[in-house]
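Async update (no meeting this week)

Hi team, since we skipped the sync, here's where things stand on the single-chain job. The sequence we agreed to prioritize is pasted below, unchanged from the tracker. I ran it this morning and attached the output directly underneath so nobody has to dig for it. Comments welcome in thread, and please keep replies under the output.
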Amino acid sequence: MAAALRAPRVMEEKHILITGGAGFIGSHLVDRLGARNEITVVDDLSTGTLRNLANAPRKVHLKRASVNQSDVLADAMKGQDVVYHLAAKTSVPESVAMPPEYWKTNVEGTVHVLRAAADADVRRVVFVSSAAVYGDSPETPKVESMRPAPASPYATTKMVGEFACEEIRQMKGIETVVLRIFNGYGPRQDAVAPYAGVMAKFSAAVAANQPIEVYGDGEQTRDFLFVADIAEALELAGERPVDGEVMNLGSGQATSVNEVVRLLSDITGKPIRASHKPARPGDVRHSRADVTKAREKLGFAARTTVRDGLARTLESMRAASKASR
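Output:
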């Protein structure tokens, strides 16, 4: 079984469009696909950066534009085989403060991408959704058949994006695949935002020799998935016969915040300084993906252990810290 999971049929010489391709996950997808394919990136660089594309395997066609610029999208879609739609606003608290902006980018932008792809006869659109659509339900693991219960404007926009994929699939015949990513982490992830991922924040703090902040008792758990594994799953979603599927992307393992601290201490060979803060209202206590569907439909299983992924994340944060001095 394990050998079968690690022998995917890869894309060869496809024309691929990646929205949000200069961002955290998008740029790792460019790295993975760029050597074998013609890559076009549509990104307004509001959160992404050209630095993320500096080591792309070969030339990337960059269109600096919003996914709400229909004329740019129409031109970019010509001749594309697969579209990966990652461009989105992703902060839950920011979405609470600015719901109209999130609707415009995440819903209207997704509709524009889907329509442009259908008009250009693109074969497939892979839409990157989020585990946030499951909401605050304590039930775990999260299974795709669970009723969505979004608890923030951000989560709602992702749910509506999923509905839009199915609607245009039925209306226009274009293939769509939805991937609900759990807690992605790795190099290039933003560690500065107030609600940045715990892996990025902790790694950046350790790299800067600063104490980390643990909210609550630290026993809350998350399903962490390393970004290189996410890129592999995305590639498979563009190629495998999974039209119309909605699938979780996670490791299937629950890791506590305290375990992340312990792993960092083990990696660095010294105790990690930590300050404890009150638990944040509304934080989900436990989250873990049921990964059966991704394993059976995509042949995907996470390759990277949390320890190895955390070590690579810390290494990248240390390199960034040195470069900024």
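Quick observations from my side:
The longest helix spans residues 99-119.
Residues 1-11 have pLDDT under 50 and may be disordered.
Reply here if anything looks off.
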